[in-house]
Amino acid sequence: MGVTFSQLFPPKPTLTEANLPSQHGKVFLITGGASGIGHELANILYHAGGKVYIAARSESNALQSIEKIKKTPLSPPSSSTPGELHYLHLTLEDLSTIKSTVQVFHAKEQKLHVLFNNAGVSLPPPGSISKQNHELQLAVNCLGPYLLTQLLLPSLQAGVRASHDKPAAVRVVWTSSQMVDLGAIKGGINPATLDNPGTDQQKNYTVTKVGNWFLASQLDRALRHLGILSVSQNPGNLKTNILRHAPAYYSRLFGPLFYEAKMGAYTELWAGLSQDLTIEASGAYILPWGRLHPAPRKDLLDALKSVEEGGTGQAEAFADWCEKQVAPFK
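User: That's the sequence. What structure does it adopt?
Assistant: Structure tokens below.
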């Protein structure tokens, strides 16, 4: 109950624009960076001197976001010279387009320091599917980000070299939800539902948010030896358009518990740049507004472990399923 309460009423953030060091020379990619949390995060990183790629489906929305960031002074003001902002077209619900997105990025940049898998969709109309006929939330929240991350691995590894092989200087940040604690079934995911999801969109959404933690953990297993940190985070309960498909009563019932999107940006900022996070924390789960989860559910921790390690192997199974879905598009 204490962990649930602290996610609803988090302590003050410890890393904000007020104490963020200069990010000159660093390259960031934020999916869903044209609005909500992503926009606020891009604003902070740009004013700290970072080169920020806003990856989004709508070019017009992204360019409006970029223009707004450039015109709006940071409060409190940053001591750094502003960096750069660039638009990168990304359509997560169509796996066939993601490779071309990465090719465009590779033509412009050799390295990437932090990938924020921030974009997501929640509670679309029942029956909503992706271009490849996957349940839409599963496609946008898990399959698209998984493929994007896999294709960007050369850039992340170049980021490690550019950071003089400093552990945890390069990171992948995945976006989860408090529903992992409150709504996930025992073990996190029932593999039988992946190919044949039901019509309960809340359950389908929760599957994807557990899946984000599973993918973060599995990426940690693959990349920790390279010094790349992979974590999942619950950005917090926020006033963003991710709930645009939710029933009207959601806002009336839960609105008093929602915070401004900027607070969620602080969670992601901490996950992506806090010096308190070492490589040993890779695979961990982060709570608002930037702190390690003190007591994750045991059944979910067991799911992160392989069968050989005494766990259930659910995270590995989910990552393997994702790999099979995206393999034709690599």
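The mean pLDDT is 93.
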